[in-house]
UniProtKB/TrEMBL annotation:
Residues 1-99 are annotated as: Disordered. Residues 10-26, 57-81 have a biased composition (Basic residues). SUPFAM superfamilies: Cysteine proteinases. It comes from Cladocopium goreaui. PROSITE patterns: ULP_PROTEASE (PS50600). One of its GO terms (molecular function) is cysteine-type peptidase activity. GO terms for biological process: proteolysis. InterPro entries: Papain-like_cys_pep_sf (IPR038765), Peptidase_C48_C (IPR003653). This is Ubiquitin-like protease family profile domain-containing protein.
Length: 508
């Protein structure tokens, strides 16, 4: 029994000893962890105050550094540059697609690499990108076709529907050079288009299409004169003489105010060919005055009695002011069709009005810039003129001016002024002349003497002689004697005293 109790007590002691060892080991581990954590915190604190090099290009950033404000700003700036580059590339690609010669072309699929179902189909090119063409296939939609698989015997000309800012500026400058005095009253939406505004709209169209001599047009003033008096203008004569040409005649009629359009075209077979006549009137109920004016103008253009055709347009305006804008749109579409250009999309009244306003604003801005440039050139030219041509007010022949022109550098001095460099009235002729001028303004007695002294001094300098005070005093005496001889003898005593005092200064 005693042995069992000893074994049990020994086990308890062993357990207690094991628990003590475990606690001690845990305590040591905790102490080591605390030391390690403390050293890590100190190391992190030191790293925060340690200066870090700003050059991190090409280095792998730590996870904590990726969230820094400076790095976020750099990443944002880099992303914005990348986005801007993508937008620029897309704009250039879009402009290239618009200006591509394939845009609007009509061709036939003949290539072997194209699908068998597309063989022989007539397609219309919508977009060109590299060697691929996006074509509109009947009942198939838009599909990409290789350029080598498409046969286009005649590629149409391309003409943009709107102009870029720089092209708009250049076209406005050329239009002003052709007609500087043109009227550019700004069109406002809701107004009826005037003759000058229709003329400005045609200038914008011709700047984009560049029709040359193939397309002629009659101004509203000429068409009105033809309707009233039967006068034939030069454009009508040239149309009758040529074999392949297009003549556009906008006609403005009154009661009510309305614009209509006549289009006369020749295919080019012969000069005696009967031209094709098209008449455009956007009012559903056609005014009799408009039909009468158009019929008269048509007979004047063809020099024969020809019946006015029925209007060929299907569109009719829903307001009472947009007839001039529709007339401009039909003029552009007729010119594009005759020149073989791709046809423009149909525009609304707002778009037509905005296009006309943009063109007129560009012309007005260019006109003001040219006027300011001319004024600046005139100002610079006036500044470059000599002083005497610019209207200087200083008197010529003065000694000071002569000295400045000849570049003299003289020194004066006498016993009275203690040999001062600038001199005094006795030794410096310029000072004496300035003093004499002041006295002459009050008494009016030294004018003749001053003129004589100036002439003598200028003559001496021009002859290369140095002014001598003795010679100047002698000339002054002779000039004063001449003045005294010419003046009336009834001089008052005050003027005599002043003259004697001035002569005494000169003698000294």
């Amino acid at each position: 029994m005693h042995a069992v109790s000893q074994v049990a007590s020994q086990k308890r002691k062993d357990k207690a000893r094991g628990r003590k060892k475990g606690k001690k080991a845990k305590k040591e581990l905790v102490e080591k962890w605390r030391q390690k954590a403390g050293s890590k915190a100190q190391r992190q604190a030191l790293e925060q105050v340690r200066p870090v090099s700003s050059k991190t290009a090409g280095k792998k950033l730590k996870p904590s550094a990726k969230l820094k404000y400076s790095h976020l700003q750099k990443r944002k700036k880099k992303q914005s540059k990348k986005t801007a580059a993508i937008k620029t590339a897309e704009a250039a690609e879009k402009a290239e697609e618009e200006e591509s010669e394939w845009h609007g072309a009509i061709g036939r699929v003949v290539g072997e690499t194209a699908k068998a179902a597309w063989q022989g189909l007539v397609v219309t090119v919508e977009k060109a990108k590299g060697s691929q063409l996006l074509c509109q296939i009947p009942s198939k939609g838009s599909q990409w076709i290789c350029k080598a698989d498409l046969e286009c015997p005649l590629l149409p000309k391309t003409a943009r529907q709107t102009m870029a800012p720089q092209q708009l500026k250049d076209a406005a400058r050329q239009s002003l050079q052709a007609d500087w005095m043109q009227q550019v009253d700004l069109y406002q939406f809701g107004q009826l288009v005037t003759d000058d505004q229709l003329l400005a709209g045609w200038r914008e169209i011709s700047s984009r299409l560049k029709p040359g001599s193939a397309v002629r047009w009659v101004t509203p003033a000429q068409s009105k004169l033809a309707a009233e008096t039967g006068a034939v203008c030069k454009a009508m004569e040239d149309f009758l003489a040529d074999s392949k040409t297009l003549l556009l005649v906008p006609i403005h009629s009154s009661a009510p105010q309305h614009w209509t359009l006549l289009s006369l075209s020749k295919a080019g077979s012969s000069k005696e060919e009967q031209p094709e006549v098209q008449y455009f009137d956007t009012l559903k109920m056609q005014p009799e005055t408009a039909k009468a004016a158009a019929s008269t103008v048509l007979q004047v253009c063809l020099q024969t009695e020809t019946e006015l055709p029925v209007p060929c347009n299907r569109f009719h305006q829903s307001d009472g002011f947009s007839c001039g804008l529709w007339c401009l749109q039909y003029m552009e579409r007729q010119a594009r069709e005759f020149l073989g250009c791709s046809q423009s999309t149909w525009q609304t009244v707002g778009e037509l009005s905005q296009k006309l306003q943009s063109w007129q604003e560009a012309v007005l801005k260019q006109k003001s810039l040219d006027k300011a440039a001319k004024a600046l050139e005139a100002k610079k030219a006036a500044e470059k003129q000599p002083a005497e041509e610019a209207g200087k007010t200083k008197k010529k022949g003065k000694v000071a001016q002569t000295k400045l022109q000849l570049g003299w550098d003289e020194q004066f001095g006498c016993s009275k002024c203690k040999y001062s460099k600038t001199g005094c009235l006795a030794c410096n002729p310029a000072k004496m002349l300035r003093w004499a001028e002041k006295q002459a303004q009050q008494t009016q007695l030294l004018q003749a003497a001053l003129a004589a002294l100036q002439d003598i001094q200028t003559e001496m300098h021009l002859l290369g002689k140095k002014v001598c005070c003795m010679e100047l005093r002698q000339a002054a005496r002779s000039s004063f004697q001449l003045v005294d001889a010419l003046l009336p003898r009834q001089l008052d005593s005050q003027r005599s005293k002043e003259t004697e005092g001035q002569a005494g200064i000169l003698n000294n």
